[in-house]
Design goal:
By secondary structure, the chain is mainly alpha-helical. 63% of the residues lie in helices and 4% in strands. The chain is built from 26 helices and five strands. The strands form two sheets. The chain has a three-stranded antiparallel β-sheet with strand order 3-5-4. A two-stranded antiparallel sheet has the order 1-2.
Length: 561
């Protein structure tokens, strides 16, 4: 039963009629309401009491006496409520379709008779076609009396003719739509523009043109006019759209390329952006002062200047480029160090709290922008702390390097320990970070160096003692720098065999850009908007390509110990 009446009094009158009237009276009631519906002018207003008096089927039923019952209703509201009355009362009568007394047409039969869609029949019902409920095979179904259909057709001849004409599309018209749409798509028009222009040219509705193009694309996926719009938005397509947007491609261009509306592109970008934010590593070292911060500009502002100002140290001559570059970054004072660690952890604290308010289904742009800004502050602050302490790693590595260790491998391993120490350091305890980081680096060396020696001893041969007794010739720093430059050139050469996504994954996974530490599969997937399993698959494919490139270029790989 319907409840969305626009007049509460008419709804109350309907309820009384359903409770007290007999089946015969209910059917008479529906007939009078339908005849009255034909006389309603949408441009006029009608008093409710007069309407109810005309269609009352049982004189014992009282007319609602509420003060608003005497108010007037607009013609459109009257038509709406009378159609509901006819359907509700006929449904309460439980009349079998065979007892209707005249021919009854179902929705499908009416659709076939006038060559229109069932959606068009639904629109006709809203525009005056009166339906009733009949019992068919034990269930109630909506049907239309032949007399009701005739009255509607007589009063809406142009509407019925137009609906039938739109439905009757010849094969030649369908081919014309497809061919014209293909030419327009090749010229750069998107689906919305194609449907709009073709609708004007062929005197058809935009929806008809759009449906025809979609039907063609689904039936002929290899010849689709708009391939991306022929099917649903897959995860791969959503990731592709988001990556192109991040690279700076305008929304209008993305909408045309993928056959989507600008609203769809904006929605995809927002949802993928929210997924990336939800995967951000925002673990922080808690501090009791964070919830009480009132002036974030001070906490997130620049570190205080050193007093007195520090002079830039001079790098010793003859150092490799990497070691010489470490002297370009000044060491941090105690005040600067405390400020940077406070800023680093507070930025992640605020970002994590804001992320709790993020709704992945309806993400807010301003909220996501603020979370991203805070995350960038945290990353840049951590990098500043790490760069200022890289000389500490070198000094510790010098004390642990031996005849069996590679110095730069120790430095690289120590840098990873330094990064982890920066993420775990609690500045509120008052200790210097260099003390905490030194213990972390030396603890790592104490574990990894014996393991490496044990591994080498396991595979030692009788020739190793003979080689150990011979004189050792080590290359100087310049030879190592030259070899490193050659290796870099060879890596860049074979990396050109990969596509953009494969290059990004390899660079992120192995830290080839030297801007960030190597990332895990999960971190790379979060950055690119894909799952970690997908990253693993692409990485395996890229490594296979690189091995093939190494073989073709005849590049000598270093021996694996």
């Amino acid at each position: 039963m319907h409840t969305d009446y626009r007049s509460p009094e008419i709804r109350e009158f309907r309820d009384q009629q359903l409770r007290l009237a007999s089946r015969r009276e209910q059917l008479d009631f529906a007939d009078r309401a339908e005849r009255l519906l034909d006389q309603v002018d949408p441009r006029r207003s009608y008093p409710q009491n007069a309407l109810l008096t005309q269609i009352a089927a049982n004189p014992t039923i009282s007319i609602p006496s509420a003060p608003s019952a005497s108010a007037k209703l607009s013609g459109s509201d009257v038509s709406h409520d009378l159609r509901l009355l006819v359907e509700d009362v006929s449904g309460a009568a439980n009349l079998p379709i065979e007892a209707a007394g005249e021919r009854v047409l179902t929705v499908d039969e009416l659709s076939r008779q006038f060559h229109v869609s069932t959606k068009t029949i639904s629109r006709w019902r809203q525009q005056g076609l009166v339906g009733r409920r009949f019992v068919v095979d034990g269930r109630q179904r909506v049907g239309f009396l032949q007399s009701s259909v005739d009255r509607f057709v007589h009063g809406n001849q142009e509407r019925v003719r137009r609906g039938s004409r739109f439905r009757q599309m010849t094969d030649s018209e369908r081919r014309e739509i497809v061919e014209t749409a293909r030419r327009m798509a090749t010229a750069g028009c998107g689906p919305a523009e194609v449907a709009r222009q073709l609708g004007r040219q062929m005197d058809r509705s935009v929806e008809t043109i759009r449906c025809q193009i979609k039907q063609h694309d689904r039936a002929h996926p290899g010849e689709a006019i708009f391939p991306d719009s022929a099917g649903p938005l897959t995860d791969e397509l959503r990731t592709k759209i988001y990556q192109q947007y991040r690279r700076g491609e305008p929304v209008e261009a993305l909408a045309k390329r993928h056959g989507r509306t600008k609203t769809t592109i904006y929605r995809v970008v927002s949802e993928m952006r929210a997924q990336w934010i939800l995967a951000l590593p925002l673990d922080f070292v808690p501090n009791d002062q964070f919830p009480r911060v009132r002036n974030e500009e001070v906490v997130l502002g620049p570190a205080p200047e050193a007093n007195p100002p520090q002079r830039k140290p001079r790098a010793p001559s003859g150092l490799p480029t990497y070691l010489a570059s470490l002297y370009e970054v000044p060491l941090l004072t105690r005040e600067q160090e405390g400020h940077l660690f406070r800023r680093f952890n507070y930025a992640k604290y605020r970002a994590s709290r804001l992320r709790e308010k993020l709704d992945p289904q309806r993400p807010q742009r301003e909220l996501m922008a603020e979370i991203e800004r805070l995350y960038e502050v945290a990353v840049s602050t951590k990098n500043q702390i790490v760069r200022a302490n890289l000389r500490l790693v070198v000094s510790i590595a010098k004390r642990h390097v031996g005849s069996h260790e590679n110095f730069f491998e120790l430095v690289s391993d120590g840098n990873m320990s330094l990064i982890r120490a920066a993420e775990k350091f609690d500045f509120a305890r008052g200790n210097k970070f260099s003390t905490y980081a030194s213990w972390a680096i030396m603890k790592n060396y104490a574990r990894t160096i014996p393991d490496e020696l044990k591994y080498r001893d396991r595979y030692r041969t009788s020739h190793d003692e003979m080689f150990g007794a011979t004189q050792e010739y080590r290359s100087d720093w310049y030879e190592q720098e030259s070899a490193q430059s050659q290796r870099k050139s060879e890596v860049e050469k074979i990396m050109r065999r990969l596509d953009d996504r494969e290059q990004k994954i390899i660079m992120h996974r192995f830290g080839l850009d030297h801007a960030q530490e190597p990332r895990t599969l999960k971190e790379v997937g979060a950055a690119l908007g894909v799952t970690k399993e997908r990253v693993r698959q692409i990485e395996a494919r890229a490594l296979s390509k690189l091995r093939q490139a190494v073989a073709e270029e005849k590049i000598d790989l270093p021996d694996e110990e």
